[in-house]
Amino acid sequence: MAQALIIVDVQHDFCPGGALATDQGDEVAHRIGELQLSPAVADYDYVVTTQDWHIDPDDHFDTWPVHCEADSPGAQLHPAIQQDKISARFYKGQHSAAYSGFEGSNEAGQLLAEWLRDRGVSHLDICGIATHYCVRATVLDALKEGFQVRVLRDLCSAVNEDTGKTALQEMQKAGASLG
Ligand SMILES: [Zn+2]
């Protein structure tokens, strides 16, 4: 059984100072970076990131302020994330809204679920931003795809406390465990 850590959308635009900031973004980014540098990271066979990466995302920018435009500073991973300790990066939302990391593909065009299955990954720990949006969508898709999922709640940043809590309950109901 292989296990992967999925770091969802820990990008500048979702952290303080960014276009769609969450309050805890910096803190969560630092905690994830610390995990990547701690002995506990040995539990993971792979560490994967997802990034919102918009080129022309249809009406997505009617719903939200412009954010995470492909290659822009706002779309970069938070500097606390240890980029030399990432196994693969997945990009989503190029031409439409995409909340789930499972809509993302890597530079070779491979989808996240397929990439994980190719490597025998069955267990996922998921963390990132924002709890109620992209983390939630990624977790629900992971469960649908048949993965065992744990949400690392202290490593998630919510838009606000209430929606964050509701989302965690919903993910738990759907079959995720909370860590
Ligand atoms: Zn977006």
TrEMBL record:
Coiled coil: none
Key word Transcription regulation present: no
Keyword flag Transit peptide: no
BP-aspect Gene Ontology terms: pyridine nucleotide biosynthetic process
Pathway it works in: Cofactor biosynthesis; nicotinate biosynthesis; nicotinate from nicotinamide: step 1/1
Molecular function terms, GO-annotated: metal ion binding; nicotinamidase activity
Principal EC category: hydrolase
Domain Isochorismatase-like stretches: 4-177
Keyword annotations: Hydrolase, Metal-binding, Pyridine nucleotide biosynthesis
InterPro entries with a match to the protein in the record: Isochorismatase-like_dom (IPR000868), Isochorismatase-like_sf (IPR036380), Isochorismatase_Nicotinamidase (IPR052347)
EC number: 3.5.1.19
UniProt similarity note: Belongs to the isochorismatase family.
Descriptive protein name: nicotinamidase
